Automatic annotation (TrEMBL):
Cited PROSITE patterns: RHODANESE_3, UPF0033
Record-stated family: Belongs to the sulfur carrier protein TusA family.
Lineage of the organism: Bacteria, Bacillati, Bacillota, Bacilli, Bacillales
Domain Rhodanese, residue spans: 97-182
Pfam family, one: TusA
Annotated protein name in UniProt: Sulfurtransferase TusA family protein
Record-linked SUPFAM superfamilies: Rhodanese/Cell cycle control phosphatase, SirA-like
Database matches in InterPro entries: Rhodanese-like_dom, Rhodanese-like_dom_sf, TusA-like, TusA-like_sf
Amino acid sequence: MRTDHQLDVQGLACPMPIVKTKKTMNTMEVGETVEVIATDAGSKADLQAWAASTGHQYIGLVEEGSVLKHYLRKCNEAEEREKTFEQTASLEEVQNISNDSIVLDVREEVEYAFGHIKGATSIPFGELFDNMEKLDKTKTYYVICRTGTRSDLACQQLAEHGFKHVYNVLPGMTAYTGELEKTI
């Protein structure tokens, strides 16, 4: 399949496929296409949600074994306003939340298994939409991932579906110094 640009992000994990895609998109002309070659399973949801939040077109995905080929098209500059979720919380705030609040970890299952905040609920970002009905819209959610990118997109999705009390935890698990719970 012919594209104007090709970007190889094989072996890179979140947020790098998005960071490198964003850099490539910044060099492209409106209407040009890019093939992003990835191996991170999380990129399936991440790149699609990033494209939606920036106004770029996510054309589709071709899976060839463990290789994921994403196709995106750069859209009009006026449409490219990347949305970020406004309600945020610090890691310190998360350590002092009430019992009726929920820490929602949207990292991949393996990331969660190797270490997460004690009592956190795991729903990987790529599975969030299909599991929203399991969440109580009256609760307060502190959404966390590794760096704040996936959790930002998750917060946007939750808010779009009627969740009122949602906070993106920044800067994410990379800066968390508290005790970790493991499920391995």
